[in-house]
Amino acid sequence: MNPFQIRKAAPNDGQAILACLAAAFAPYRDQYTPEAFADTVMDAASVQERIREMCVFVAVSEQKIAGTIGCKANGEEGHLRGMAVLPEWQGTTLASSLLQAAEAELRRSGCKLVKLDTTMPLERAIRFYQRHEFAASGRVADFFGMELFEYTKSL
């Protein structure tokens, strides 16, 4: 049995989601532009907007949010955003469980393809996504002065 539970986020989870994002991305702060970092870790208003507009999952252990991921379906295409896992949970099954929950939600919504965007500083995350059958699409976009790389996976 997992020492954590995956559930959909509620509006009152906002502050804990922000804390999780801040802790997970803190080691990369100096490799991000200030604007890209602020967009990644969000603020109180943007986390509430994400909870309203996307399906956001959280992993909870001992009543503390240890990880999060958001997903949104747009027809047959889904998008993942804002995956973060507290440092003490990295390397466990928690991230895979969050990803599986988001992919299952997208499949239920009729998605056949899922996309996500990531940056080069997140090499460990890129390897994680590749182990979970994501592949670089070749699409690169500007993300507040950083390169944003798209990865895709068929569902």
Can you summarize this structure?
This protein is of the alpha+beta class and 155 residues long. It is built from five helices and seven strands. The mean pLDDT is 97.
Could you name the key traits of this structure?
Aminopeptidase; alpha+beta; 7 strands; 35% strand; 5 helices; seven-stranded mixed beta sheet; globular; 155 residues
User: What's the CATH C level of the domain at 5-111?
Assistant: Alpha Beta
Architecture of the domain at 5-111, according to CATH?
Answer: 3-Layer(aba) Sandwich
Helix content: 25-40%
Termini, distance in Å? 26 Å
Oligomer: single chain
User: In terms of structural class, how would the helical and strand content be classed?
Assistant: alpha+beta
Major β-sheet profile: 7 strands, mixed
Radius of gyration from CA coordinates: 15 Å
- Principal-axes geometry comes out as globular
Give me the CATH superfamily of the domain at 5-111: Gcn5-related N-acetyltransferase (GNAT)
Which fold does the CATH topology of the domain at 5-111 refer to? Aminopeptidase
Instruction: Look at the structure and give the mean pLDDT.
Output: 97
For the secondary structure, the number of strands is 7
Instruction: Tell me what portion of residues adopts beta-strand conformation.
Output: 35-45%
List the strand order in the largest sheet.
1-2-3-4-5-7-6
The helix count comes to: 5
Order of helices and strands: EHHHEEEHEHEE
Which blocks of ≥5 consecutive residues have pLDDT under 50? none
